[in-house]
Amino acid sequence: MAKKAKNGKTDSAAEEGAGRVTDLLRAPVGPIDLSLIDPGATPGAPGDRADTEADFARTAPALAELQSRLYAEGVGGGRRRLLLILQGMDTSGKDGTTAHVVGQVNPQGVSITSFKAPTKAELQHDFLWRIRRAVPGGGSLGIFNRSQYEDVLVVRVHSLVPESEWSTRYDRINAFEAELADDGVHIVKVFLHISKEEQKQRLLARLDDPTKRWKYNPRDVDERGFWDAYQAAYADAIARCSTAVAPWYVVPADRKWYRNWAVGRLLLEALDDLSPQYPVGDFDVTSERLRVTAS
């Protein structure tokens, strides 16, 4: 397990400090052109696939310890929590990333919400209603597989509501996320940036492998026809909703091994910045030892 520094942080998250993934992948301020970001790039990776996967395994204990401390902090009444928001085109790896992240930590302190098309009941409420209900409690690592951003992505691309409606949602999302931050929610928003060609290969792989056909949805091919519209919608969402309290990170996702490492590293650095601490018990240890011994 990673050693703790005197400030309570883990050594592993700070080592090789030449380039924090948080800084390398943070979306730039202002308009963004996703076509200029290579989905096959591996910024910050410690080496090739083997090196990167080895680093992912090596730092997993540090991630697990930090998450354990956050969970303990919540059990002790702490309000702080970490919310990972995953967005991306179909096959970009939202499910795969979630599985790899959860596989490294104690699932008892994790909540996962996958937002599908809203139900009739959900449509009776404001678009943020179902999102608010899923915000993780104190001490939790929450993962949103899709999120409030669907209401400025698919809703926009398919004109499900008038532009006069969805165009107001960017500011409402920013206000909502600022509210969460004020309540102790540390937000990490990740856009899994996949190329159209890589998506095609992953869809074909699902058709070719009987064990993966359950993942295939014919509608995914229909959505490929709106690729450029989705890229424009994502670019606007990232540009308009990357704030100081809830920045966006663009993770190249053509290489699964890099994608998993990068998201894991973003979480590690976020937790290290939070530096959660095990709560101090409200009892006298010496007295309780005597009581336990005598019992």
Features:
about 300 residues; 5 strands; disordered N terminus; alpha/beta; single chain; Rossmann fold; about 45% helix; 5-stranded parallel β-sheet
Structure description:
- The chain is α/β, with parallel strands linked by helices and 295 residues long.
- The protein has a single domain (11-288), classed as 3-Layer(aba) Sandwich (Rossmann fold), CATH 3.40.50.300.
- The protein is 47% helix and 11% strand.
- A five-stranded parallel sheet has the order 2-3-1-4-5, with helices on both faces.
- Helix 3 (49-75) runs parallel beside helix 13 and helix 4 (94-102) crosses helix 13.
- The longest helix is centred in the first third of the chain and has 27 residues, at 49-75.
- It is globular.
- The protein starts with 10 loop residues before the first helix and ends with a helix.
| Rg value | 21 Å
Number of helices: 14
Integer count of domains: 1
CATH topology: Rossmann fold
Structural class: alpha/beta
Gross CATH architecture: 3-Layer(aba) Sandwich
- In what range is the share of β-strand residues? 5-15%
What topology does this entry show?
Blueprint: H1 11-14, H2 21-25, H3 49-75, E1 81-88, H4 94-102, E2 110-114, H5 120-123, H6 129-133, E3 141-145, H7 154-157, H8 163-166, H9 169-182, E4 185-193, H10 196-208, H11 218-224, H12 227-241, E5 248-252, H13 256-274, H14 285-294
